[in-house]
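>> received
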Amino acid sequence: MPADIAVISDALDLFNTERTGIDDRRPLAVLVRDPETHQVIGGLTGRTSLGLFFVDLFFLPPGLRGTGLGGKILRQAENEARARGCRAAVLYTITFQAPGFYRKQGWRLLGEVPCDPPGAGRVFMTKELAAGTGSV
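>> returned
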């Protein structure tokens, strides 16, 4: 199935490049590794394209939450996105996940769409990445 998804992703990327003349889609990841095993135990994945940084996944094990590491990871990713020329960032989270965390990091609400379980919602957020709006 990953190969099938890549066909669709690559075709859309080619379409976008043909339309815009810009071929800048790149993955972005900030990984957290276990200090003993060096296995990935968390981190952030996303991508940059056409001046936008998309956060796709962000996870930290419970023992690492509330330590400041999450903010540091997000700032590192935002700074890399700025270095790549991104002017803004977008993501979605769920009401029971981390919208409060992102608000504390300077992200603002774009909108919310109800989802399951009842009472929950997908929270869409954005952040301006103008030069000088963040640091490591």
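>> The beta strands are 26-33, 40-49, 52-59, 88-94, 108-115, 120-128.
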